[in-house]
Design the sequence.
């Protein structure tokens, strides 16, 4: 299995631009999580999906952030418009329905820099 | 609600020595699971070891073992025969009850000195 695949690995964009991060979970995993990691705040859960349905988006910072999961093999996290404070590493993780028991598998992350 | 505290922001160990990373947690649930993840400079988050709260026996994975003290709500990670490749950030996490979410500590940065 190729694991959780995220793209791009690095993204540099100008303030005000739209940014789209992509994630392909492991086949057969039905839960998907988007995290943001910064030095100041550590790992923050932004949103998670179960069977393609958003279950908890309470961590989404504001309306500029949106996430979709149109099917079991693809999810996007969009930031529009982007701001310098959005600079962080964004991780996607997936798990089976027993993920809370056995843990998640993470992608390699996208390092986003907004200038 | 669950909380996880890692009180050691940074630690170092000599190659081939043993090091213990601390983690304490809080939960009111009786059914929960504890995890240690490793994040090397490549930034990939890797599951190192997990512990089921209902099991008294401490989990072990090769050179990695835990000291699970349920009454004290402590879940420390011991790395034996430390190797240069063990240098990384280590995160402790808990999942409890029906909540699918992992709650994370802020991490401990481990340096391994040759």
Sequence:
């Amino acid at each position: 299995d190729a694991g959780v695949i995220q793209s791009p690995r690095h993204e540099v964009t100008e303030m005000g631009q739209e940014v789209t991060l992509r994630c392909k979970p492991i086949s057969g995993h039905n839960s998907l999580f988007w995290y943001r990691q910064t030095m100041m705040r550590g790992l923050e859960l932004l949103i998670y999906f179960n069977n393609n349905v958003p279950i908890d988006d309470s961590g989404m910072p504001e309306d500029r952030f949106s996430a979709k999961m149109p099917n079991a093999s693809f999810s996007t996290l969009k930031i529009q418009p982007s701001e310098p404070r959005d600079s962080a590493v964004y991780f996607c993780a997936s798990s089976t329905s027993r993920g809370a028991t056995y843990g998640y598998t993470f992608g390699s992350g996208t390092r986003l820099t907004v200038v | 609600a669950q909380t996880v505290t890692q009180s050691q922001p940074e630690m170092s160990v000599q190659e081939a020595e043993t090091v213990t990373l601390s983690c304490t947690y809080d939960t009111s649930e009786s059914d929960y699971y504890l995890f240690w993840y490793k994040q090397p400079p490549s930034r990939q988050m890797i599951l190192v070891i997990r512990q089921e709260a209902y099991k008294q026996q401490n989990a072990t994975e090769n050179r990695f073992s835990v000291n699970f003290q349920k009454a004290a709500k402590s879940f420390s990670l011991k790395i034996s025969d430390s190797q240069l490749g063990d240098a990384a950030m280590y995160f402790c996490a808990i999942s409890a009850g029906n909540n699918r979410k992992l709650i994370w500590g802020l991490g401990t940065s481990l340096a391994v000195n040759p």
